[in-house]
Amino acid sequence: MMNLLAESSLIRRIVSTILPLKEMKSILRKEKMKSSVVGESTLAPEVEVLNISKHGFWIYLAEKEYFLAFEEFPWFKTATIEQVLKVQLLHGHHLYWPDLDVDLEVESIKFPGRYPLLYK
Is 119 among the domain residues? Predict the structure, then answer.
């Protein structure tokens, strides 16, 4: 494991001179840099609220963005920002807001017209 001084020396050497790609690969192969502290995952969350407006809010889910209009999802209209932000993805297809006791199938967000609020 390289020490901090050796790492900074290597970085200065690479930054201060324009090395041919072949030489940079050779240097990096010889002196592999490793993180000394294992940190938290840098992966994106499974579900995330991206933005909230007076008309509804956007969530990021499975690499796509969805808009939940307050007209179609009225349970969120009077919720606090904190309550809306606290969302969990359960079993890969079920969203749950514990502070609001609201749970929605992902399909109902993708196709809200198929899931009317009132029984006819």
Answer: no
